[in-house]
């Protein structure tokens, strides 16, 4: 009976689906275990073999926990709103909903084929109205909430209104906008409704404000920081600029300290925790106010070094700081405006990362030192960011390297004084940035003090003159929550006299309307501006035609949509009760599942999704909707599976036209002449290292001259002819790895069929001979469709089986490490499964017996039980696969076909290779699925050694081994050894002078 993976896997996948084998129960006496994979986005490209890595690991744990008696929730769904689907819609004219559904169908087909134990009855899609209804509801709850600093939690805004009505806002300690005006109860009660709404917007946890955003003109939308890579959009590589726009924002900054402290309570990798700590960026120091000379304006700065207050040499504002335009002198206006415009074209990340470039402009304005009143020049520089701290820094060059470089770069220029040194240390070559090993000098009342005492004294004196105060600052900024896109959650918001109004929750969802075009409107409004049916009727309580807007009973709806992270910031809770129409999840379900026990996903979400989801979780806890403070107890970041890329090498030279060089290499590439010569990897290396010989060069020149003649024949008469070539180069071109054979060869015919670009190509091997097949170069890179190094899991499943794919991905290496994919290595795993199968079957069928196993068989099994149990508990899946292979080899050598060994072995294998395990369990005579059968328990007694194989040495040289019971005494061992024929042969009638025996260790005969 042979092992046919196709029939077995199809059979059991059908069985699981029909019987809902992996459906979790919300009411169970079993302990719960919630294992979750990070929300996948269903792209049109489908899955490659790198994608399932984390899913396989989580599935092993989920299946293991079921075996261990847990009620396991292991759901799956789709983060199906987002920019890629919208961009595809713009390009093709297809509705994003259509392409998203097609992509999801493709993903589902692939996921099913790999045999995951997902509870598909709980599937969610963020783009479905029955899901985003609750995303809209959460948005409303945030809008209707404020944050109390004293209680350190959020409360309903209605409670704040009562406070304002009774006592005004003078005594409240709340998170709010800067510069909120004080008012009494009488004043509040006298304010118009519109004025009250404006004030409440300054306190709400989600609010409208003019904000500096990352604007991508090509995509027509705002981008989050984590959607920008190297200063351009992650999607499409388009330029991103900074501009001010009125946007919805969320006060994640209110939760900064709780987000920081919560990291100490969860089992996450230290690297992810550190990423979040850095992003939150807690700093302890002082807020200092500088009066701008001859004006009403003040500049507030935050500094972690108030002890250096007397070292302030100049000030630097962010170019986008609101005071820049107001304090700049007429003489400096042109230079400042030009600099501000140039800075707007650089993303914040680019500015933060660029520590080498020094640039700035003097505003012409001065501030007054809070203690000495001496003038301090005010500059602008792009190394200061408006959203970090106050957007202004007091520059102390003697104690800060960046300030030191800035001061020296502009040394001698107008507005740049000599650096003041306030340390008893030399700063002639560099700033002194240490916090110890110095005394303050030239610092008035701080002279002689160190960092700690100087900081305390400086804050005390600043508070006395009301020039500053102690302050804790966070780098974390409020999250911009608007996107100028179509394919996203609509806001449940309409506008009355420009003020946002929430649509009552009972009328949700507000469904995304149809639009003719997915691009922004001609007057620059977001794509929803193209909708004809997008207004709110407050009498009929429904969405209606835009033509009916009269701003009396029919009002305009919000045109922006929510960002991609909206739906993914709470999805794990919806899985708990996925089809509840009345609540985002019932209290019973929320109380039972609580939070995620194990979360597996990529580390690229460290400061995006993981931070936002923790924020929403804490907010929902504050408002009493859930009980856990943190959403994910344990987090594992799986490493990346890398692709083995393949390259052919195109031959280039720098041509000469007549007697004049045409320019640099890049110029030549863009001209009419392009070589169609592609060379092997070895030949490319020879040109790279300039190790080619004369004969080889002659052969290539012959072919090259033919191309020169062809190129010249295509030139216009007035153009110079190509006459010479110098500076030889080869440029690597990615080619499809699936076209490369096991000898790293690719044929010309295959390339031409694959891509028309190669129709006129010429292949040259390392000997300079034209050929139809060359050796490619190989390199390990990120697996990507653009690099043509993607391996489709469907192909692996079809050829080798899903169980082989699952085992092989685990076998590649530790889960959290990056590792290269090599399809050639998969045959060993495939062979292992066939060997496992042969323990149970021969050509005639099942060969399992009820005979009592030997001690060696029990030993092999229980070694494996111990190892696999420990490995799954420690997420060391690769070593489990190795142990399975060792065990099967040992059992095959022992000719084991014993039920007491093979039944538990089938259960052991089940989490890793579930299809073959189900079939083995069924063939062994059991009904139902193996998935909930109790996991085998390790018993120590089977690993206790009863015998020892002793090396027997003569004068220190081992001559043979002998296996003896471990309970023998030294005398008994000596008696057995001395009567052994091999001993007598070695002694040849002699009597040893001494017999050294250490029971359980050595036997040595001397003399």
UniProtKB/TrEMBL annotation:
<keyword id="KW-0067">ATP-binding</keyword>
<feature type="domain" description="Leucyl-tRNA synthetase editing">
    <location>
        <begin position="277"/>
        <end position="462"/>
    </location>
</feature>
<keyword id="KW-0648">Protein biosynthesis</keyword>
<feature type="binding site">
    <location>
        <position position="785"/>
    </location>
    <ligand>
        <name>ATP</name>
    </ligand>
</feature>
<keyword id="KW-0436">Ligase</keyword>
<dbReference type="Pfam" id="PF08264">
    <property type="entry name" value="Anticodon_1"/>
</dbReference>
<dbReference type="InterPro" id="IPR025709">
    <property type="entry name" value="Leu_tRNA-synth_edit"/>
</dbReference>
<dbReference type="GO" id="GO:0004823">
    <property type="term" value="F:leucine-tRNA ligase activity"/>
</dbReference>
<feature type="domain" description="Methionyl/Valyl/Leucyl/Isoleucyl-tRNA synthetase anticodon-binding">
    <location>
        <begin position="857"/>
        <end position="969"/>
    </location>
</feature>
<dbReference type="GO" id="GO:0005829">
    <property type="term" value="C:cytosol"/>
</dbReference>
<dbReference type="Pfam" id="PF13603">
    <property type="entry name" value="tRNA-synt_1_2"/>
</dbReference>
<dbReference type="InterPro" id="IPR009008">
    <property type="entry name" value="Val/Leu/Ile-tRNA-synth_edit"/>
</dbReference>
<dbReference type="InterPro" id="IPR014729">
    <property type="entry name" value="Rossmann-like_a/b/a_fold"/>
</dbReference>
<dbReference type="InterPro" id="IPR009080">
    <property type="entry name" value="tRNAsynth_Ia_anticodon-bd"/>
</dbReference>
<comment type="similarity">
    <text>Belongs to the class-I aminoacyl-tRNA synthetase family.</text>
</comment>
<feature type="short sequence motif" description="'KMSKS' region">
    <location>
        <begin position="782"/>
        <end position="786"/>
    </location>
</feature>
<keyword id="KW-0963">Cytoplasm</keyword>
<dbReference type="GO" id="GO:0006429">
    <property type="term" value="P:leucyl-tRNA aminoacylation"/>
</dbReference>
<dbReference type="GO" id="GO:0005524">
    <property type="term" value="F:ATP binding"/>
</dbReference>
<dbReference type="InterPro" id="IPR002300">
    <property type="entry name" value="aa-tRNA-synth_Ia"/>
</dbReference>
<feature type="domain" description="Aminoacyl-tRNA synthetase class Ia">
    <location>
        <begin position="773"/>
        <end position="808"/>
    </location>
</feature>
<feature type="domain" description="Aminoacyl-tRNA synthetase class Ia">
    <location>
        <begin position="11"/>
        <end position="153"/>
    </location>
</feature>
<protein>
    <recommendedName>
        <fullName>Leucine--tRNA ligase</fullName>
        <ecNumber>6.1.1.4</ecNumber>
    </recommendedName>
</protein>
<dbReference type="GO" id="GO:0002161">
    <property type="term" value="F:aminoacyl-tRNA deacylase activity"/>
</dbReference>
<dbReference type="InterPro" id="IPR013155">
    <property type="entry name" value="M/V/L/I-tRNA-synth_anticd-bd"/>
</dbReference>
<keyword id="KW-0547">Nucleotide-binding</keyword>
<keyword id="KW-0030">Aminoacyl-tRNA synthetase</keyword>
<dbReference type="InterPro" id="IPR001412">
    <property type="entry name" value="aa-tRNA-synth_I_CS"/>
</dbReference>
<dbReference type="InterPro" id="IPR002302">
    <property type="entry name" value="Leu-tRNA-ligase"/>
</dbReference>
<dbReference type="Pfam" id="PF00133">
    <property type="entry name" value="tRNA-synt_1"/>
</dbReference>
């Amino acid at each position: 009976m042979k092992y046919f993976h196709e029939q077995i896997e199809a059979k059991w996948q059908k069985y699981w689906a029909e019987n809902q084998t992996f459906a979790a129960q919300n009411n169970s006496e079993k302990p719960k275990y919630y294992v979750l994979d990070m929300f996948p986005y269903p792209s049109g490209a489908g899955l490659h073999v790198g994608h399932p890595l984390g899913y396989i690991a989580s599935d092993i744990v989920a299946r293991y926990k079921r075996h261990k008696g847990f009620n396991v929730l292991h759901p799956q769904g789709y983060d199906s709103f987002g920019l890629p689907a919208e961009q595809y819609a713009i390009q093709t004219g297809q509705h994003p909903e259509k392409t998203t559904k097609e992509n999801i169908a493709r993903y589902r087909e692939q996921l099913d084929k790999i045999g995951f134990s997902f509870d598909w009855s709980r599937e969610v899609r963020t783009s479905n109205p029955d899901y985003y209804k609750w995303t809209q509801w959460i948005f409303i709850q945030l809008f209707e909430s404020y944050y109390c600093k004293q209680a350190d939690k959020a409360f309903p805004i209605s409670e704040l209104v009562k406070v304002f009505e009774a006592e005004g806002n003078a005594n409240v300690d709340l998170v709010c906008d800067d510069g909120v005006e004080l008012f009494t109860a009488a004043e509040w009660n006298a304010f118009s409704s519109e004025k009250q709404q404006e004030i409440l917007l300054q306190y709400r946890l989600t609010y409208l404000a003019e904000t500096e955003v990352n604007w991508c003109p090509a995509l027509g939308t705002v981008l989050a920081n984590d959607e920008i890579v190297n200063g351009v959009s992650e999607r499409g590589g388009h330029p991103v600029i900074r501009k001010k726009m009125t946007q919805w924002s969320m006060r994640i900054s209110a939760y900064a300290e709780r987000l920081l402290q919560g990291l100490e309570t969860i089992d996450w990798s230290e690297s992810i925790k550190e990423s979040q700590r850095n992003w939150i960026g807690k700093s302890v120091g002082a807020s200092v106010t500088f009066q701008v000379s001859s004006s009403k304006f003040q500049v507030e700065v935050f500094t972690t070094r108030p002890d250096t207050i007397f070292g302030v040499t100049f000030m630097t504002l962010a170019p986008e700081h609101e005071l820049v335009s107001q304090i700049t002198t007429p003489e400096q206006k042109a230079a400042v405006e030009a600099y501000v415009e140039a800075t707007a074209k650089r993303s914040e990340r680019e500015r933060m990362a660029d520590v080498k470039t020094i640039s700035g402009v003097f505003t012409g304005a001065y501030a007054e030192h809070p203690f000495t009143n001496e003038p301090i020049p005010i500059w602008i520089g792009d190394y200061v960011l408006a959203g970090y701290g106050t957007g202004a820094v007091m520059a102390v060059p003697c104690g800060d390297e960046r300030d030191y470089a800035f001061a020296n770069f502009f040394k001698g220029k107008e507005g740049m004084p000599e650096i003041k040194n306030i340390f008893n240390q030399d700063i002639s070559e560099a700033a002194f940035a240490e916090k110890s090993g110095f005394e303050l000098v030239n610092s008035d009342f701080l002279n002689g003090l160190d960092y700690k005492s100087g900081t305390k004294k400086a804050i005390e004196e600043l508070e006395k003159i009301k020039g500053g105060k102690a302050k804790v600052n966070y780098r974390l900024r409020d999250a911009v929550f608007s996107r100028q896109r179509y394919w996203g959650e609509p806001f449940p918001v309409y506008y009355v006299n420009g003020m946002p109004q929430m649509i009552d929750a009972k009328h949700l969802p507000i469904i995304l309307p149809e639009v003719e075009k997915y691009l922004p409107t001609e007057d620059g409004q977001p794509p929803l501006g193209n909708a004809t049916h997008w207004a709110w009727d407050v009498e009929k309580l429904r969405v209606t035609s835009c033509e009916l807007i009269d701003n009396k009973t029919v009002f305009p709806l919000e045109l922006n949509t929510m960002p991609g992270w909206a739906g993914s910031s709470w999805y794990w809770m919806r899985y708990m009760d996925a089809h509840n129409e009345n609540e985002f999840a019932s209290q019973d379900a929320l109380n039972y599942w609580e939070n995620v026990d194990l979360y597996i996903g990529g580390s690229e979400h460290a400061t995006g999704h993981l931070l936002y989801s923790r924020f929403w979780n804490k907010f929902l806890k504050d408002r009493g909707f859930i009980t856990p403070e943190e959403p994910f107890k344990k987090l594992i970041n799986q490493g990346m599976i890398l692709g083995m890329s393949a390259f052919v090498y195109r031959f280039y030279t720098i041509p000469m036209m007549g007697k004049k060089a045409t320019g640099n290499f890049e110029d030549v590439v863009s001209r009419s002449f392009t070589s169609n010569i592609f060379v092997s990897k070895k030949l490319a290396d020879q040109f790279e290292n300039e190790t080619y010989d004369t004969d080889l060069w002659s052969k290539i020149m012959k072919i090259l001259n033919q191309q020169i003649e062809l190129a010249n024949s295509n030139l216009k008469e007035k153009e110079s002819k190509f006459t010479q070539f110098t500076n030889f180069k080869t440029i690597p071109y990615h080619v499809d790895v699936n076209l490369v054979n096991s000898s790293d060869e690719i044929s010309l015919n295959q390339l031409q069929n694959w891509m028309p670009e190669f129709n006129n190509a010429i292949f040259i091997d390392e000997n300079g001979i034209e050929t139809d097949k060359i050796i490619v170069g190989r390199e390990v890179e990120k697996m990507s469709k653009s690099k043509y190094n993607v391996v489709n899991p469907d192909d692996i499943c079809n050829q080798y089986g899903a169980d082989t794919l699952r085992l092989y991905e685990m076998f590649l290496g530790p889960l959290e490490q990056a590792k290269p994919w090599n399809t050639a290595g998969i045959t060993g795993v495939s062979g292992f499964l066939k060997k496992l199968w042969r323990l149970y079957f021969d050509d005639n069928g099942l060969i399992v017996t009820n005979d009592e196993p030997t001690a060696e068989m029990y030993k092999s099994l229980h070694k494996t039980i111990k190892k696999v149990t420990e490995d799954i508990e420690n997420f060391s899946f690769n070593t489990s696969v190795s142990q399975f292979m060792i065990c099967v080899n040992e059992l095959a050598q022992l000719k084991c076909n014993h039920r007491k060994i093979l039944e538990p072995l089938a259960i052991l294998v089940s989490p890793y290779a579930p299809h073959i395990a189900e079939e083995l369990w069924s063939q062994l005579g059991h009904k139902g699925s193996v998935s909930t059968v109790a996991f085998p328990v390790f018993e120590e007694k089977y690993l206790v050694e009863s015998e020892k194989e002793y090396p027997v040495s003569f004068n220190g040289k081992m001559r043979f081994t002998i296996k003896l019971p471990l309970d023998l005494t030294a005398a008994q061992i000596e008696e057995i050894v001395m009567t052994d024929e091999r001993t007598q042969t070695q002694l040849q009638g002699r009597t040893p002078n001494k017999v050294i025996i250490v029971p359980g260790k050595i036997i040595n005969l001397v003399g």
